[in-house]
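Lesson 9: reading folded outputs for more than one chain in a single document. The general rule is that every protein is listed as its sequence immediately followed by its structure tokens, and records are never interleaved. Here is the first one.
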Amino acid sequence: MTIKYLLGMCLVLLLLCPPVLASKQTEYFAVFMEGKKIGHAIQSRVVTDGKVTTTEKVSMQVSRADVPVSVNTTATSIETTDGKPLGFEVVQGFGLMTMNASGTVNEQGIVNMTVTSAGGEQKSTFEWPSGAVMVEGLRLLGLKKGLKEGLEYSAKLFDAGSMQAIEAEIHIGPKRNVDLLGRVVALTEVKTVFKLPRAGEIVGTSYVDRDLRVQKNIVPMMGMQIEMIACTKEFALGENDVLELVDKMFLASPEPLDNIKSAKSIIYHLSPTSQAAPLTIPSSDNQSVQQLKEGGVIVAVRPVAAPAGATFPYEGKDSNILEAVKPTRFVQSDHREIIDLANRAVGDTKDAAEAAKRIEAFVSEYIDNRSLSVGYASAAEVAASRVGDCSEFAVLTASMCRAVGIPARIVSGLVYVEDFPGRENAFGGHAWVEAYVGDRWIGLDATRAPKGFDAGHIALAIGNGEPVDFFGMVSTLGYFNIEKVIIEE
């Protein structure tokens, strides 16, 4: 599962660091991870009738247990020649599934957005984030500021893929001799610090020429780094290498965890593998987090039981919990087929805990093709295809819970596995669900039902299933080891 989010976050950060293009031009880039070419990027800019249209296409593919996983994104931004946003379109292809999101920005700063996928069409509106810029706005800001060493400035970058603005601090560094696939060129180093929601910071490094055109871009992710390097069209679109990432998605357990299902709690001692930013790990009803002075973290996982007698739908007024009942792009709880599936699963029970467990069991049986080939599907797509792995189980479970009024959110993190091809007694990337029952969030894991959620789950990110919600995975996994575990029976 984590490979999907890895690729998704790579795309987001690459698209937030576009090269500065001339009036009308197309540029090609090769995309590398772990030193292997895994894809390409094509970026173009056209000025017509007072409008600037910038298009960025990124395609990447890796292997997961010998199963190819591909992600393709085309992002188009439309702005005035002075950088005012007018509209955007993003087409995201996750393996077998494709999602199209487009929006226009009116004079009042209201965005009218349409999302189209195999699950149908969704329309919504939201306010344009104050001060946020897209590609042309960022280009003009860079031209205005220049490349004087030591210069620092900030920007708010709108990412159409996640429909939100991301704060960034830009630092102009010295000139360096940079290897561009055999060509050594003197370029200016530019570091961009991305302030990621609920995930701390990620620092990207770009190397630009005197015209501010990016020639190389480096983004660290999960203990690795992804590079985008300017090159010829032929090389960019040429054959890719095969990069197997399963090894990168597992952490060794310091000891076998016997009888994990009966464990009342498990305390994990995590130690950072570098002196980078502090580990940002979320707390929840099932997990408490203690930050240590030396940079380590103690995570205590104590699964909570659902209270008896709680009913649904949720009728409280907590805004955060109400948010977890609303439909989203990937969790389409208002979709007719999902509502029907939820009603079938829940039956005649009025007890919220029983309803949640019935949904968990239903999804476990309903997805009958546990395939690693799906990039990342929405709940409506999963309902139609009945194909996927843990992330598809999670979005469908959350969507069905929301469809009957049970607040639900998607959790991404690690789960203990006794045996996985080539791995024993290790923690691997996983996705599951937390549902709000009574007065607490309880864990649901349809992928592993009937065993379900237990103390072998370590949450690294919590959200609505949107790719941007899982930045926490990118900034934590790969940057720590599990040094010690303490099991409380």
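And here is the second record, again sequence then tokens.
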Amino acid sequence: MQLERNEEGFSIDASLLSELLNVPASRIQSLMRRNEITSLCERGEREHEGQYRVTFFYKGRRARLSVDQSGWIIRRSIVDFGERPLPSSMHRPAGM
């Protein structure tokens, strides 16, 4: 699977994000607009040069994708913290 690379970073298909965050795909866009789904994109350094880490947050769930320069997913992980919300410092406005 691949993310689409654009000028601002990467775009993710709503169906993949739906699966990762356990949210209906039809709600993804509205949750992102209201900053309930937030994201962070980081560029790899040293041994990870040429790779990116794209992380999405929703309530107590964190989904992280490691991708190469063209957007191919190398690794993915999901952590569900349950009912405990993530600290607000971990949330960033959606869009990369």
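What the second record shows: The beta strands are 4-6, 9-11, 37-43, 51-58, 61-68, 73-80.
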